[in-house]
Amino acid sequence: MRALAVFPARREFRIVDVPAPVLKNEADVMIRVREVGICGTDREIAAFHYGTPPEGSESLVIGHEALGEVLEVGPSVRTLKPGDLVAITVRRPCTEKSCPACRAGRQDFCVTGRYRERGITQAHGFMTELVVEDERYLVRVPPTIRDVGVLVEPLTVVAKASIELGMILRRFPWEPVGVKALVLGAGPIGLLAAMMLEARGMQIVVYSREPAASPRADLVRSIGARYVSADETPLNAVSTLGPFDLVFEAAGNARVAFGTLDALAPNGVCILSGIPGGQSPFEIDLNGIMRNIVLKNQMIFGTVNASRSTFEASVRELERFMTIFPDAVRRLITHRVSLEETPDLLRQASGIKQVVVVAS
Amino acid sequence: MRALAVFPARREFRIVDVPAPVLKNEADVMIRVREVGICGTDREIAAFHYGTPPEGSESLVIGHEALGEVLEVGPSVRTLKPGDLVAITVRRPCTEKSCPACRAGRQDFCVTGRYRERGITQAHGFMTELVVEDERYLVRVPPTIRDVGVLVEPLTVVAKASIELGMILRRFPWEPVGVKALVLGAGPIGLLAAMMLEARGMQIVVYSREPAASPRADLVRSIGARYVSADETPLNAVSTLGPFDLVFEAAGNARVAFGTLDALAPNGVCILSGIPGGQSPFEIDLNGIMRNIVLKNQMIFGTVNASRSTFEASVRELERFMTIFPDAVRRLITHRVSLEETPDLLRQASGIKQVVVVAS
User: Fold this and answer.
1) Which of A58, A233, B185, B348 is most buried, by CB atoms within 10 Å?
2) Cβ neighbours for B253, distance < 8 A, ≥ 6 positions apart
């Protein structure tokens, strides 16, 4: 069967022919891959900057944002049946006894760093025709959200942040009302974050580099949020748009993330979800930032990856989005291409979310 | 009666004679001040860098870390009686209806910034003989901790951080075990934080600028913690002492706080409690710091001030300390001086915690 694989040592990236997987364990499930989303990590892997093949293999099948259909289940599988749609979780636990997170099924908090990630590090991904996976790593996706189900995985970033935030806000003995939120970045994660905050009734500003007349800005406005372009409002003037009770960073840029902290309100929370690629140090008034964090009881936290429970929350979130702003959700997916067209698409970023259709 | 007051406009700081206060409201309590601790804020006020007199007054009576004795109570007072020892809380709520924090009695989270603070801003403090205060701002201190009861107020910084941390750690579905903690700074707050973490069974390193042969380092070792001097281990080598699950910053220095974040473990929490005085920007790899925060699910939060419930927690904490390491707690108080000696003492920092004895 076909698969899209990277050969890091040879700097090759191409369609390969691989043997079809078979059910081995009682809890195994055979999945026909329908769609796989493309994200920045896939681009980095395709450019040989990232990605590690499984032990003993010289290639890595890429792809980690998958929507599939159950074809066949092992004898102990109880939660899934042939025909069900599923999202496949990405990270697999480390085997260290000392890792309380992986032992608790929360490998998104793995403390050893010895986890594997399908399509990214030491485990093959989903840009292929068939995948076999243990039931525990599969989450059912209702047929009602079939056409956007490939967004479940990217939405987990936002769903996890939301769950963490909910836990953290319990420290206040009052209900937050009229919350103002700033979303940094209008990529898929930023737009999904805006939808999540909008669905919670917050007042939202999305700040990004795209001009005010652009498809992403239109999409932001279509869900009822405000779009502010960096063209009109430079970084050092973002605080005039605030103060914001919440900042959701999805720009992957430390200068933007720390440079907008002066827009954070007392008791404000800043969620960091972007991974900055840059190396160059820059000057910033960290004394002033720290004074504000202390004197205003502020908080910054980072969030990465997601476990099964977060995928389940993400499914519920996506169902909710589809009742509130279905058109906006559908418009997030700007490209649908075949496996054969994918290598070219990976070399040039365009649109919002690009999706590989493996089987329709 | 005598009081120690600052006249900011005239740049004067001296003992003054003020009228004795009287009980006015049914819930008022008359308190004879016994001891008042001195902190960095008092030094700043005495140097005319900080502090605001009450409206209509040209002077501000300073002092906010008070231990007093109840002399007389108004007719509606139920929780206190003459002879009781009390700690007096510092911050008074703003009167804005829009402030959910002050309305919930949690003025430490005040969102308007229009609170008053006794001895600091717009309300007289406690370096005087008699104080009248509403019962709701007074917390009973058991006679068993009488000789260190003046530490209740500084300990609230640590008690509040501990309560916040407990709330936040509920996001993990496992019990943290074998926690390693780094305390930055060996001033009174740093030392009290080390005691709190030690009392919880954590493994602790206190990192500060004092040499390894110093009274503060001795005190750290006496509670069973490790002391590392900046003389032996420069800032950029602190990560070799870790990784730490918790960093408690009490050095008031952004370069130290952010410069040690590379010692923070996955899922680690950094608590900022110090208020940096410096203005000068410095170079630091914020891209790397942000990458770690995201990829390791880390958190940074600031904490300031404390409300009644935190003072109550602080009293319980201090009682506990006195059962575990009573000598170390007593050794935190290195100076006891009279009100008359206080102006000189405020101009020269020495020892650990200096206490003004108003009435013994």
Assistant:
1) B185
2) B184, B185, B274, B276, B278
Contact status, residue B186 vs residue B208, Cβ threshold 8 Å:
yes
Which residues on adjacent β-strands are paired with residue B183?
A: B206, B248
Domain spans, chain B: 2-141+333-357, 155-302
Selection from A271, A41, A254 nearest residue B289 by Cα: A254
Do the chains contact at A293 and B284, CB–CB below 8 Å?
no
Task: Determine which of B174, B296, B297, B309 to mutate to test the interface with A (most A C-beta atoms within 10 Å).
Answer: B297
Q: What is the largest CA-CA distance in chain A?
A: 61
Sheet holding A122-123, edge to edge: A91-92, A116-118, A122-123
Is A266 in contact with B104 (Cβ distance < 8 A)?
Answer: no
The yes-or-no answer to whether A2-141+333-357 and A155-302 have a common fold is no
- Nearest by CB to residue B304, choosing from A110, A274, A295, is A295
Rounded distance between C-alpha atoms, residue B298 and residue B264, angstroms: 8
B278/A285 CB distance under 8 A: no
| List of chain B residues whose C-beta atoms are within 8 Å of the C-beta of residue A296 | 302, 304
Contact A54, A123 (CB under 8 A): yes
- How is residue A200 written in tokens? 């919670």
Four-point Cα dihedral B218, B224, B230, B236, nearest 10: 180
Instruction: Identify the CATH assignment for B155-302 out of 3.40.50.300, 1.20.120.1080, 3.40.50.2000, 3.40.50.720.
Output: 3.40.50.720
**Exposure b/e, B228-261, CB count within 10 A at least 16 = b:** bbbeeeeeeebbebbebbbbbbbbbbbbbbbbbb
CA A301 – CA A163 distance, rounded (Å): 13
Q: Which residue of A has its CA nearest to B177?
A: A100
Which amino acid type is present at position B343?
P
Per residue in B292-338, pLDDT (tens digit) is 999 999 999 999 999 999 999 999 999 999 999 999 999 999 999 99
Whether the Cβ atoms of residue A44 and residue A349 lie closer than 8 Å to each other: no
pTM here? 0.95
CATH topology of domain B2-141+333-357: Quinone Oxidoreductase; Chain A, domain 1 (3.90.180)
Residues in contact with A193: Cβ distance below 8 Å, sequence separation at least 6, in sequence order? A158, A161, A183, A248, A250, A273
Query: Secondary structure of chain A: what % helix, strand, coil (to 5)?
Result: 35, 30, 35
- Nearest CB among A171, A276, A286 relative to B282 is that of A286
CB A326 within 8 A of CB A345: no
Residues of chain A with C-beta less than 8 angstroms from the C-beta of B170: 167, 170
Specify the pairing of strand A282-284 against strand B282-284. Answer: antiparallel
Question: What is the C-alpha to C-alpha distance for residues B82 and A186, in angstroms, rounded to an integer?
Answer: 63
Kindly give the interhelix angle for B152-169 and B308-324, rounded to the nearest 10 degrees: 100
Distance, C-alpha A141 to centroid of its chain: 17
ipTM comes to 0.95
Adjacency order of strands within the sheet including A60-61: A12-17, A2-7, A60-61
Tell me what the pLDDT averaged over chain B comes to: 95
- Chain B interface, mutation test: which of A297, A305, A307, most B Cβ atoms within 10 Å? A297
Closest chain A residue to the Cα of B98, Cα to Cα: A177
Pick among B160, B299, B309 to test the A interface (most A CBs inside 10 A): B299
Helix (H) or strand (E) holding A45: helix A40-46
Report residue A297's pLDDT band, with 50, 70 and 90 as the boundaries: very high
What confidence tens digit (pLDDT) does each residue in A180-207 have?
Answer: 999 999 999 999 999 999 999 999 999 9
DSSP A95-151: --TT-HHHHTT-GGG-SSS--EEETTBEE--SSBSEEEEEGGGEEEE-GGGGGGGGG
